[in-house]
Every structure is written in C-alpha cells, then in structure tokens.
Amino acid sequence: MKFTSAHTVRFLQLLFSLTLLTGLTYAQRSAIPADNRAAIREADIKRDLFAIAGDHFRGREAGTLDELKASVWIAEQMRAMGLEPAGDDGTYFQFFHIQRTRITETSRLSIGNHKLTHGQDAFILAPAIASVDAPLVFVGQGTPEDLAKVDIKGKAVALEFSGTAPAELSYRRFLFGTMTRRANELIKAGALAVIWVSNKDAQFYFERWTTGLERGRYDLPGGPNTRVFSQAPTVWLPADVLDWIKQPGQQFTNVVNVESFNYPSVNIVGKIPGTDPKLKNEYVLFSTHQDHDGVRRAVAGDSIWNGADDNGTGCAAVLAIGRAFAQKPAKRSALIVFHGAEERGLLGSRYYSANPTVPRESIVAVLNGEMMGRNAPDSAALLGSQPPHLNSVALVNSALAANQSLTKFKLDTLWDRADHPEGWYFRSDHLPYARLNIPAICFTSLLHPDYHTPKDEPERINIQKLTNMTRWMYLTGWTVANRAERPDLVKDFKLER
Ligand SMILES: [Zn+2]
C-alpha cells in the first residue's frame, strides 16, 4: 500500500470547496449532540475479535453450520447489548438461499497413466460439463512459433504458463485472465481441451489462490452464475508435471459432470431506534460480513482459514458501534447488518439490499467495515471517496471531518481509484447499496500478504488500530444520524463497471 500526500492534500482541498458549496455550516455541525465514543473500548473489541475469528467457528464458511453458529453468536451479542431484532419474523435473522454449482466427485481426469483429481492435483477452471478423449500435444509456451509446428485440431493442448503482468493488472488477475483468454483462442482454433502447466510464478498461486476453483461457483438462485453448460475444459496443473507431460503419445481423458444445489446463508439484523419522532423513521446502516473461507487445504499445517482481518475486524467493530448506539441512541435509527456469504460474491448484501427489512428509501447511508486492523498503524482508506465511486459528498465529508478531529489517519487515495489494479471498491458489501443509489462508503485498512490464507489470525491484528478505525466509523455514523438533512446523492452517479 502506498500513500501519496500530494494526492490527499489536493483531494482535501477539493472536498473543502465542495463543503462550502453544499452549505454545511458550523452552526449545523454544532447542533449534533455529544457522542458516545468512550463506549468504544479496546478490551471489548479484542474479546469479540478473538471470539469470532477463533478456531471454534472454523472460518465461518457461507452455507455451513460454522457460519450459522457464528451468526447465532453474533445475534446473542446484539441481544445482550439491547439491540432490537430487525430481521424476519421478529428475529435477528434474515435467511436466504445461496446456489452452488460444482464439479461432481465422480468426475475423472487423466493424462497417460497419471490420474488427476480436481481440487487436489488439478483444477478445472470452469464447472462445466465435458467429455473428452483426445491425444495430447505439448506446445512449449504456446508462442506462434511453437504453435506453427503442430496441428492442434482435435487434440488436447498442453502448454506452460509464461509472461509478466502489465502494470495495470495484479498478477492474480493477469494469470486467470490470460489462462481463460488464451484457452478460448486455442479452443476456437480446434483444440478439444487446454491444459496449463504452472511456471514458478503461477505455482505460487496454484498453491494459494485456488479456493474459488475447489468450491465451484456461487450465486443467489437464478443469478448468472447458476447456469449449467457444456464447455471444452481448461485444466490447470502444478509445475512438477512438466517432467512427464512433454512425453509424446499420451492420451487426455476427461469426464466432468456438474451438480447444482441450494443451501442457506443468513444476514443478522438489529436496530437501535432513534430519539427524534420524525428522523427515527430513517436509518443509518452499519454493515459488515461475518463469513470467511472455512476449512480448506492446509498451509503450513493450518487448515482453518480464520479470516481475522477479513472480516473478524469488521464484526468486532460493528458490535462495538452497536453497543455505543444502544447506550446512547442518535436522532435517526441505527441499523446493524452483518451480511452472510460475502466471500461467495457479496450474496448477503445483494440479498438484503434487494429485500431490506426496513423501507429501502429510509436507509440514508451505508457505512461498511471491511478489513480494518492491518498495515501501518496510522494509515487507512475510505472507499467511495472519489469519483466515480463518490456517491455522497456530505457522507464523505462527515468521514473526513471525523478523521480530522479524532483519528487522524493518513488516508490512502490510490486504492479507491477507478484505475487501481485490485478493483478494491467492487469487493465488499457497500457495493450493492451504492448500485441502488444509496449513499455508501467503506472503511478499510486494505490488503496484506495474509489475505485469504490461514495466516489471517487474530494475533496478527493491531487492536489499537482496529479500535481507532471503529471510532472513526462510529463518529461518522453518529454525525450522519444526527444531522438535520440526510446525506445527498451525487447527481448522475455512475460506476465504471
Ligand atoms: Zn471481506
């Protein structure tokens, strides 16, 4: 993560002039009652973080008992602190179905006399039905010269991955993008299957970044990722097959079947009614997600992917914010929403924003907390703070003012940019709300090397930083919940994708 002060200064100047234009005066600010920031305590945050991200909840994978158990635990915390249930049927819960489409266990894959198992020593990139029995040709790195030497029609084509990521793409995106695009080209040219062999760089990702491929695709029922189709297979293999895959005269055989089924995930919803007779009908929504990646392949002997930063930190923060509001409510109501199945494609927030348990137009702002306890203690980022992601000037101003007066984080300005290779803005629960024209921002301390690995453990979280991030998020929400006007929506707000 990089911080450039020049960007921030220019941006703050721009926002300052916007503030003047929107007429936010000192008088309006001073009308906000004294906040309850003292209720946000390091000890509570540490206890909740270690509980939610401990091995007991086994990584809280969406659609499993582990996610449900963690969700019941969260609801119990809400009950204990005095939040009113605001889910379905008078409970804290809003259950919904997620649909999973995956390759069946009986699917078979072999090259010569080597039997391979999807999810272990091979990954089939897309869960699609396929039945192939074809001679294998190895074409080196698949350069035009390599390909000119062979006829690939009716063959299974094996090649070694190569190349470096261009500046605008992360390696992970480059890798998956290239494997898919080039496989499609070869299949178009007559190949019946494409087999990628990892080089050194790709091997690193083969060992760590295959979680999505193991599990298959997820969506809400009826969504685009629930479609089952047939497709020539693209297979990804580890680097050590290079020794034997080059041998001529081998046959590639592949019988892949796909199954699709529904199972439940859950959002957890509580509220603290506002004190103003009129404004209590409007809600400031504090958002996070309780799920992570569950129990998966072991890395260095550890198979529990705890998701402490992602998103035990968000959970501990939102619980602390709920506690502060329960002790001292604001004029507007506070709505606390833990989203399920975020890691499977923002499914809980897509579901809740489409089926909110309060009138959608009564949600005045969404403040999302995602990964809030790593990296430099004095740096953080606010997603949704610059165009085209900026959808409410007043909301962003509240966050910047809260930071200036209280937490004084140096704000990163690169990760919220439309041209940032990670596309970070598109990867958490504020997004579905922003798409529905609800003012939305996300508080985050950004990526780190333990992201989506079993090393994302509670011991690695900077609790003091997390507490400060929580106070920043709380104070922003407190201001928004007490101001006379609801936050504006930027005219003609339109995301780049
Ligand atoms: Zn997350």
Automatic annotation (TrEMBL):
It comes from the Bacteria. The keyword Oxidoreductase does not apply. GO terms for biological process: proteolysis. It holds the Pfam family Peptidase_M28. Residues 1-27 form the signal peptide. Keywords: Signal. PANTHER family: METALLOPEPTIDASE M28 FAMILY MEMBER, PEPTIDASE M28 DOMAIN-CONTAINING PROTEIN. This is Peptidase M28. It comes from Fibrisoma limi BUZ 3. The lineage of its organism: Bacteria, Pseudomonadati, Bacteroidota, Cytophagia, Cytophagales.
